[in-house]
Amino acid sequence: MARRALALMTISAAAAAFAGSADSGEEDAFPTAGTRYESRLLPPGATDARLGAHADVLLSTAGGVLVGDHGIASLGPGALALGLELGVGKCLVACGRLSPDLVVDRLLFSAAARVTYHLTIHGTAPNLAATGFYALVEGGAALNLVDEQDANARIHAVTYSPVITAGLGTTYFPGNSDEIFAGGEVRATYMPRFTVLSVDPPLSALQPQSVAPLPGVSLIFFMGARF
User: Fold this and answer.
1) Is the pTM of this model over 0.70?
2) Where are the domains of the chain?
3) What is the model's pLDDT at position 109?
4) CA distances (Å), 138 to each of 51, 69, 84, 169, in order?
């Protein structure tokens, strides 16, 4: 009898341990409503490379950008990164036939250094673990290739303007991967009046529309990879 009782106790203990192990596995596989998630950061030493398309919300300009961000250090609840952006754009609504006798075409090339601060956000939404949020500030310069034609002459010119940008961005890693992501940015850009660097024919004078600033709010959508 003693041996039978001991055997029953051993079997009962093993069954209870197995049941507890199974319950624990179910909790890990199916998080409860109280599970907390944390947004993605760009960790120090990691690099984000992305290719995107941008457009001003008024369609004044549109074009493409190539961006690289490199994680520098953890800072407070987030992470700091430095980067470089190269862009090309085409003047749209702000150009074309601006009057019966004036046609203006403008092509823009830009380069800017950028600082991004990646934010830590906590919440209960599972997709938060695959999403990153950041604020950005950029400073650089833009070259403007101008082709202006009126009733009297055709002028080619190169103009320059400093560019200052601030905005917010987000990234999303499909399938909660660690490499491929998509995302977007919304930006406000300050770009003063362009200064003429060269003009052909010499001593020609550009119309005010050809050196007008092109500031505004723009949207960028991109695909990228993290290394």
Assistant:
1) yes
2) 1-30, 37-226
3) 96
4) 17, 12, 9, 13
